[in-house]
Structures are given as C-alpha cells and as structure tokens.
Amino acid sequence: MVINKKNAAKALFALLLGCTATVNAQDSEQSASVPIDKKYTAEIKKIAAAPLVKKAMQQIVDLEKETMSNHVLLTEIPSPPYKEAKRAAKFAEMIKAAGIDSVWTDTAGNVLAFRKGRTGKKRVILEAHMDTVFPEGTDVTVKYRGDTLCAPGVGDDTRSLSVLLTIVKVMKQTNIQTDADVIFVGATGEEGQGDLRGVKNLFSPAGPGKIDSFIAIDGSGTEGIVHRALGSHRYRVTFKGPGGHSSGAFGIGNPHNALGRAMHYWDESGNAYAATPGTRVTFSVGVIGGGTSVNSIPFASWMEVDMRSENPERLNAMDALLKAAISKALAEENAMKKMGKDLTVDIKLIGDRPAGNNPATIPLVQRMMASISYLGGTPKLGVGSTDSNIPFAKGVPAMTIGQGGKAGNAHSLNEWFLNDKGYIGIQQSLLVLLSEAGLAAK
C-alpha cells in the first residue's frame, strides 16, 4: 500500500505529540481485512449475558465518579522517571482496598496485585504503567476546563491505573471468579530511558513466574489494538577531547565539530536508507549538549538518539549507519586537528526495545476485537512501542489496548483527558479479561 502525504502527515503529527501507540493507514486497512472468528463473537456475547457480568458492567457505569476521583488523586502524585515509589505506594494501598487477595512490590518497583483463579492453570496479567515522562518539580495539579482534565500525565498513563482499580472493585463486589489467576500490575519504567524495565523484570527470573497472557492498557480511545511492537535502539554518543581556551588552544580537536559531522552523515545515510523499499524505519537526534563557555573549546559533546522499526533487520541496518557516521566523523576531526591528543568517542546503549508481534488471529487479539465489536466499536489493529514489546519478543500472547475516553497532547505540559463515555474502555477491558482468563462457572 502507498501511504499518501495526508496519511503520512497524520502519522508524523501523532508521533510529535508523543503517542506511545499509533494506528496508521496501513493498520486500518489490515483491521478491515482480518475478520473476527465467529466463535469469539459468540464467546464474548455469552460472557456479557452472564448475570454477574451484566451486573459488573452496570457497576462500571455507576462507579464513574469514583473512577474519576481515583484518576485525579493518582495524577497529582508525581511519578518522574525512576522515581515512581510515591505513586506506587498509594496505588498499592488503593488496589488492596479495592478488594484484592494480596499485594506486593517487586525488585523493579512494580506493584503486583494477585487475584486467585479457581484452577490457577493459567496466569493472565492486566497492566498499566505508573511512570510519566515529566521530571521532578513539574506541576501535576489537575486543572479543569469544563469537563476536561488538564495535567501532565493525566492520560499517559494515569487514567489506566484508575481503570485497573475499578475492574478489581467490580469483580470483588459481584464475586466474579475466573479460572485463571489474574495479576494486576502497576509497572515502572515504560517511558523514555526507563526502557521497559518494569515489564522486563516481570518476564525475568525475578518475576512472578510463568505468564500465559499479557494485556497492557495504555493510550486513550476504545478501538485501537496494538498487536505489533515497534522496536527501538537508543544511544548516548559522547565525543571527548582535551578541551581548552578558544584562542590559546586553537587547533586541537573539537568534539562539537565531530558531533556535528556525525549528525550530518547520519542524516544523509539514514534518510537515504529510510526511503528504500521495506518496513518503515525512523531515526532522530533528540537531545544534544556539551561545552562550558563561549570562549572554550569543549572537552565533551554528546547527543541522545533514537531509531525505530518493526523489522529487526531494518533497525539493525539503521544502527550500523549511525555507527559508521560516528566513525567517519571522528576520523575526519582527528585528521584535521593541528595539535593535541586525538578525540575519542563513547557509544552507550541507553534503550533497547525489541520488535515482535502477535498475529491478529490469535485468541487474545480476536477476543479483544470481538469485545470492541460487541460494544459498538470498530477494531483498529496497530503497531506501537509499549510494555507489550517484551512479551511480543518472547512469544507470549500480548496486546496493548485503550483506556477509554479521549486524550491528547501526551508527553506535554498541556496534556488533557476527557471522560467521553470512558466507561466503555473499562467494560471492554473487563470483557476481554474474563474471556482470556475464563469466566468460572457457578
């Protein structure tokens, strides 16, 4: 399929807003071509018709005010990168009060809330991440503009934590039981240099054990299903030299010059490669720094870069182009200097999110498609960089779904959330959870 300029502009705009999950033109076409197996449509319909489930679905609507109150409370607890502990402690307290069997915090700071199943032969995780992109000191007070909540992190991903709390509460109040064990997780480290450390820990020997299915809630809306992982590599590249006075040391190697050349060469080769036929691959220089004063030759110059693709081969090729550009820039600057020691370069991997996917035909994704359809929506299959990247890469059935409502300006100080039929997102999450974990017969 050829993506036209209009669709490409929309995709770029979504990325600039910092969306963690995207559904592009190609994904929309795919969603129309992947049918929902009738057996999953029948399964969701049967589950939704069960008396306890009907009661729970209504209670989700009845608990709207409480869900919003929890949402605001958690939003106003700062959760900067690597400093999620304060929010985690409150979330643990709240999910325990909602009616969970046991709650604990693991070695990565994740909050795990265990709900025992009737047989326990399977284990399903329903997860939302607790961290935001905003540094310490950011004002996270929720401000109201009519019905709209405005605050950093109010949509990504704090709303999803309140969704988990409501699901736990309605399952407790209605005494709904599942065959499988269910673990509700508030995860750390989804954003930025957190590098998915929370979910990586869940799937490590330090985790809770075998995980059979993984469902992440991240992003607004009710129709999107991320079933493919956008892999990424992130580096901090630092050119180093002796540094010195801008006049007295003139002629020594300048790390800024080397950095500029590296950026230029990667821009040339990266754009040429991105334009070649194949799976979409992107790259960018996100942050640069270094130097001490206007009249000094810097002793260090650094940049942080990001590259992404669903295809590991394309991602690795873009990675190789970065390193070739760095090597060329370093050699040129060292050849041009008139005196002093050679510059050196340090390349540090600061993020590695694996690519992977689940076919849209697997039961988990089919059940979500059927749940969306049952509640009047149209499923849209997509690709994203989310906590589901880890189970995707390990071959575990996984997906990332919407939290309901509408949201925008993610990762900005002007982030907002509107509770426009937000209960539908919670109802969908409950239906797919009960379907995947098995609604235990009374």
UniProtKB/TrEMBL annotation:
Domain Peptidase M20 dimerisation: 231-332
The keyword Hydrolase belongs to this UniProt entry's keyword annotation: yes
GO function term, MF aspect, one: metal ion binding
Keyword vocabulary terms for this entry: Hydrolase, Metal-binding, Signal
One Pfam entry name: M20_dimer
UniProt signal peptide: 1-25
Protein name, entry field: Acetylornithine deacetylase/Succinyl-diaminopimelate desuccinylase
